[in-house]
Amino acid sequence: MNYLRYVKLIGTMHVSPKSREEVVRTILEERPTAVAVELDRARFLAMTENVVFTMGDALRLGRKGLINYALAKIEERLGETFGMAPGGEMRGAIEAVRALKVPLYLIDEDINIILAKLSKAPLREKLLLALEGLSVFLPLKSELGDPLEEYRWMMLEFRRRYPYLYRVLVEERNEVMAGNLMAIVDSLLSAGVKRPKVIAVVGLGHKAGIERLLGRA
C-alpha cells in the first residue's frame, strides 16, 4: 500500500520562523484526522514543561548526557542564526492540534536509544567532531542565500563527514518514523476511518527519506 495516499509530510527547519508559520497554517487549513510530530515522549514532556537541560545535568548523566547537551547546543546556535528557538514548529503543531482537538502522535525514536547508539560512534568521527567543534553545522560561509538551500547543504556536509552519525540520526530514525506513520494509518483504517488524513511534521532532512519508505510499503 502507498501510505502517501494518507500521509502528508511537512519538512521543516527546526529553527525557522517560516517553518512554524507553514506548520500551523497547514494544520488549521487542512483539518487532518491526526497529526504526528518528530518527538518522543521524553522530548515532548521536556518541551511542553519547558525543562532546561544544563551542563550540570549532562555531567550527572555521563557520556549520554554530554552527547545530548552537545546536540542541544548545536540546535541553539542554529536558532541564533535563523531566528527561532529550536522546536518552535513542533510547539506550533501542538498548539494547532489542541485548537482542532484531533489526536497527536509522537513518532520519533526514543532519545535514550538514539544516545546509546551515538555513544558507539567510531573514534574517527568523535575526534573529527571534537576538532571541528560546531562549525560543520553552521553554513554561515555559504553563498546560497536561501536558508532552505543552506540547510540542505549542511545536511550533505554532515553525511559526508560523519557517515555513522548520519545513519543513526537520519536514516535509522526515518525507518522508525515511517513505521510509526504506517501503524497510525493502519489503526485509523481499522477503526473505520475511510479516508484518514495524517499530517506529519518532521525535519527537512527526514522528509524525502520517510516519503520513499511510505511510498514503497
Output the keywords.
single chain, 217 residues, alpha/beta, four-stranded parallel beta sheet, 10 helices, 4 strands, globular
Strand content: 5-15%
Shape: globular
Q: Which stretches are low in confidence, meaning pLDDT under 50 for 5 or more residues running?
A: 78-86, 136-144
SSE order, as H and E?
A: EHEHHHHEHHHHEH
Textual characterization of the structure:
- By secondary structure, the chain is α/β, with parallel strands linked by helices.
- It has one domain (3-215).
- Helix content is 62%, strand content 9%.
- The protein contains 10 helices and 4 strands, in the order βαβααααβααααβα.
- The chain has a 4-stranded parallel sheet with strand order 1-4-2-3, with helices on both faces.
- Helix 4 packs across helix 6.
- It starts with 6 loop residues before the first strand and ends with a helix.
